[in-house]
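seq:
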Amino acid sequence: MEEQESFYTGPPPPPRPSFVSRHTTALKILVVGVLTLLLLIPLSMISSLIYERLETKRSAELEITSKWSGEQIITGPIIVIPYFQEIKLKDKSELVRKSLLLLPTEMNVLTDAKVEKRKRGIYDVSLYRSDIELKGTLSLEDLAKTGIKPEQMYLDEARVIMGISDLKGIREGVVMQLGNREYNFEPGIPVENLYTDINPTLDKYYYERDVQTTSPNVSTGIFSAGLNVKLDSIAISGLSQGSIPFTVNLFLNGSQGLFIVPIGKTTTAKVHSDWATPSFGGDFLPESHNVTNEGFNAQWKVIDLNRSFGQTVDADNATAINQMATSAFGVKFIQSVDQYQQNKRSVKYAILIILLTFVVVFFIEVLKNKKVNPFQYLLVGLALVLFYSLLLSLSEIWGFNLAYIVAAIMTTALIVLHMSSILRNKKLGLFIGALLTFLYLFVFILIQMESYALLVGSIGLFCILAVIMYFSKKLEL
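struct:
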């Protein structure tokens, strides 16, 4: 009798889950990470756009200042005396003509500057009209310390020179009152072998890195432009006998900054202006200053012991001329807020806002069992990136603070409406909006802070990471 085979007729065993279904959460995390990295591309484009707009602003400023006048650096008045020096070369001796600069014994500067804004399109630049009075004393007493013999000097060719960065700014003729006599300045500095070039790479360094500096632009030298007057025999005779007081009145236009080179054995300066946001800079800060909403007053005092050059300088002494140039002090009439600098700082936090928003949407999707496809993540990310384009364009018109508020409200409202529709839950959409509001407020506070931005940012990120770690315990990868 044949044994009958038995067959199992129950339900078949369930199929083994596929790799995708078993690792859905992990794959979603990978997709969100890839989308976050892809959004770095439009963010880099916005960063480039910020630099491009900054270059456009600089071009507009240059167009205005080139017609008005640029930053002004005043050096002088200084007596220049030509002399000859015998140089021995093997069996020969050669006479070389040189020039000696005699700096004033005393130098007092009184300045009143009125600042106004000129616009070119949406950009503006600070221009000023200044009335400057230079007072002090000149003499030839320091000639004895140089070791140059009187017969080596061409005293009949002595001149007084003044370095002025941009001669276009002079509004009226310049007259020097020397003792009881008046001398009219002429344009140009006809001094042989006067060294005028100084470290032209310095300003290029700051320009390429967009570093805001309060130092004057001395890349072309302090004697690249200026005025001169020839002294007559009466003046030379008087200067040889002792000190003679001088007075020079300058009616000078300029932009961006006004600086003084401390050429006196004792140099004092007083600057008054109606500009409420000055930036004092150069090699010396003011001894005292008072800044109000109506303007500022500042006072400097520099003595020869504070400098690296003496009261007599050879015109071809590159080191001494460089030291003179870098010793300038003064003020820059800067804008109180630079929206481009703040835009660049805000873009640096963009990846943080995008990543945290994606993390919250991801947690809602997993913990609340809501489905959000990668395309919706991408749309939310693009909205967050568009915030920075809105911020840049609006800040050029309204200023950074108002532009930030408007752009943040627009972006948050768009994402709240979109996510409420996708999740079919208004409360979850409003929750995402509350998160974005917190993040935008947090970043805004960091942008406004300077000294404590790193500390506050680090503590804030630590707390955010702690919250994410707490909720991540509920994830199953």
